[in-house]
Amino acid sequence: MSERITAVKGMNDIAPPDSAHWEWLEARVRALLARYGYRNLRTPIVEPLALFVRGLGEVTDIVEKEMYAFEDRLNGEQLALRPEGTAGVVRAVVEHNLLYDGPKRLYYMGPMFRHERPQRGRYRQFHQIGIEALGLAGPEADAEVIALAADLWAELGVQDVTLELNTLGQPAERAAHRQALIAYFEQHRDQLDADAQRRLYTNPLRILDTKNPAMQPLVEAAPKLLDHLGAASRAHFEQVCRLLDALGIGYRINPRLVRGLDYYHHTVFEFVTTSLGAQGTVCAGGRYDGLVAELGGKPAPGVGWAMGVERLLELLKAQQRLPAVPVPDAYAIVPDAAAWPQVLPTLRALRAAGVEVVMHASTADGLASMKAQFKKADASGARYALIFGADELDQGMVAIKPLREGVGPITEQQRRPLDQALSWAAELRAAR
């Protein structure tokens, strides 16, 4: 036998029955996004490296340490697997002039890639669902995207999710705060760990997000961005808070919440949970009014969020909110291969009528025994067995046998005519 090839570490297959939970979650999210007026945008997995260097910031952890970047062997172009979704969405909006007729509400779903140590709910290939509201400048847009996420938690029945909120102000205010942070941390350089030393002059705001317990007192006493905000930035943030109050959405203002990407300013937020241990963030986002211009478009505001699908599914599993795995309505049992000319048209008619039916087919060893087929039918979770036996087929009939108690209108084994499948298909669907 040839040597077995396995998946790349941290890049996982999603097989049944787990894939059913992914489909269920994606369908629920799509339905909610449609009610808010969001439409789907699909961007390439591979993008120019410059998109993320310019869009996310050259000294961010993603660009410096985590991106899968490579050179195209055909033309030498520098490329990268997308590590997040917002930059690609904005690139597409600029490239295709999608804002020519006004604001756009867009969403994406798909895989992202970061070269980091795989751990629970955090993988090298992971999946995000994200929304981007482009061309909307007011604080009401910030409140609406936050409300959308809060509505999703309610739809899914998720508990133990807290909204943390902050503002990063405008670029000039952030720059003044940056200089104040550098001056402050320079005075306490001997207390900085290696990560903070590295970030001191490149991205000092990220020092505030340190998880090092020894640095917490130092960080708590650091200059606050709120002290550097002008009247317009304060008014924007205060209105966001008022609107969240009006919506009945609770929040905690966290002045240390900075987010890890350079394009954020004004409102930033995270939804966090204590149900997943250290990996507590399940959704995060904020306002990025300068990103469209940074990527070559006419200046336009934007605000959005992204959530990790793996992490959200972990949370739903921990809180026992995942639905039961779907099972077929019926399982077709075929004792004799001579029956196929009658079996296949009947099953096709049932499927056209919306019935989910699994057909037992031959293997390399031929058709299994009736007993073995019934075991397969029971293991499938199907509610009914459709028995295409010789006696039934001689009369142009199929026997329907309930495999579960109390599942639908057919409570004991009965026969139905093959040529009238559409008339009794609803009885099989009613068992759901």
UniProtKB/TrEMBL annotation:
Class of the enzyme per the UniProt entry, highest EC level: ligase
What is this enzyme's catalytic activity, as reactions? tRNA(His) + L-histidine + ATP = L-histidyl-tRNA(His) + AMP + diphosphate + H(+)
Coiled coil region boundaries: none
Q: Which residues form the Aminoacyl-transfer RNA synthetases class-II family profile domain?
A: 1-335
EC number assigned by the record: 6.1.1.21
Instruction: State where L-histidine binds.
Output: 84-86, 114, 128, 132, 259, 263-264
> What Gene3D superfamilies would the database entry show?
Anticodon-binding domain, Bira Bifunctional Protein, Domain 2
* GO biological-process terms attached to the record: histidyl-tRNA aminoacylation; L-histidine biosynthetic process
Alphabetical keyword list = Amino-acid biosynthesis, Aminoacyl-tRNA synthetase, ATP-binding, Cytoplasm, Histidine biosynthesis, Ligase, Nucleotide-binding, Protein biosynthesis
Judging by the UniProt lineage, the source's domain of life is: Bacteria
Q: Which InterPro entries match?
A: aa-tRNA-synth_II, aa-tRNA-synth_II/BPL/LPL, Anticodon-bd, Anticodon-bd_dom_sf, His-tRNA-ligase, HisRS-like_core, HisRS/HisZ, HisZ
Q: Name one GO molecular function term.
A: histidine-tRNA ligase activity
Q: Spell out the GO cellular component terms annotated for this protein, sorted alphabetically and separated by semicolons.
A: cytoplasm
The metabolic or biological pathway listed in the UniProt record of this protein is: Amino-acid biosynthesis; L-histidine biosynthesis; L-histidine from 5-phospho-alpha-D-ribose 1-diphosphate: step 1/9
Major place of residence: cytoplasm
Location in the cell reads: Cytoplasm
Identify the PANTHER family for this entry: HISTIDINE--TRNA LIGASE, MITOCHONDRIAL-RELATED, HISTIDYL-TRNA SYNTHETASE
Identify its protein family: Belongs to the class-II aminoacyl-tRNA synthetase family. HisZ subfamily.
| Quaternary organization | Homodimer. Heteromultimer composed of HisG and HisZ subunits.
Q: What does this protein do?
A: Required for the first step of histidine biosynthesis. May allow the feedback regulation of ATP phosphoribosyltransferase activity by histidine.
Q: What is this protein called?
A: Histidine--tRNA ligase
Q: Which organism is it from?
A: Tepidimonas ignava
